[in-house]
Amino acid sequence: MTDPILQIGKSGLDTTEQKVKALTNKMVNAEVPGFKGNDVLIRSFPLELEAAHKRIESQQPQIEDTYYDYTSGTLMPTGNQLDLALGGKGFFVVLAPWGEAYTRDGRFTLDSEGRLISTANSYPLMGKNGPIIVTPGSKIEIDQYGNVMIGQTLVDSIRVVDIADKKQLDSVNGVLFKTASINSIITEVPSPRVVQGYVESSNTSIVHVMTELVQLSRLYNMDAKIISTRENIMSRAIEMGKVQ
Prior knowledge:
Layout: H1 4-28, E1 38-42, H2 45-53, E2 63-68, E3 75-77, E4 84-86, E5 91-96, E6 99-103, E7 108-110, E8 116-118, E9 126-127, E10 130-131, E11 140-142, E12 147-150, E13 153-157, E14 160-163, E15 169-171, E16 176-179, E17 186-188, E18 194-196, E19 198-200, H3 206-243
Antiparallel strand pairs: 1-2, 3-19, 4-18, 5-6, 5-14, 6-16, 7-8, 9-10, 11-12, 12-13, 14-17, 15-16
């Protein structure tokens, strides 16, 4: 029979490890524009206590779900006419190898064909008429509605979309997302707030991440001590049984 105390300790180590991985990912990407941090939901102690009273199962910490935090980051000025940020809801649409992808990383540049492409991965930025193409060397003006202008000429309008249920988004790298289901409801944002010359910072804070890592380190050590203590007790009990 598996010892329930050891199961609790091992589950505690496993869930803590998953939390640490999520926090480490946040720390690594804390300076990446448009990055959205992910976290894990761990079954709370009150639920475990209730289950124990009902003798449903052992009181084991367990991961119930993972989620991404889509809270907006701070808008940071860059002075680059091709850097864009969204001051409201929604995502820019880029054309990835698998189809449309969604991001709030607004760092763009021009390729040799005059297409506006993502600086991070070279995926074309989508307008209402397809990939946005401008004349290289032109002064590009982009208004708050995403209209791309060269002089008085409207080139195209940047597509900004929103996803009704963001749980249906799969993360590619914390910056780029794709829909997990063909049934995902995607709507065009009719009046987006596009800000030229700015990018949105990551929504994670290194200070908060470090604080959580310290707390998790203490929790990990406590779980490890539970396992060590239990193993010692069991070893002594086995030795006493041999003596008798």
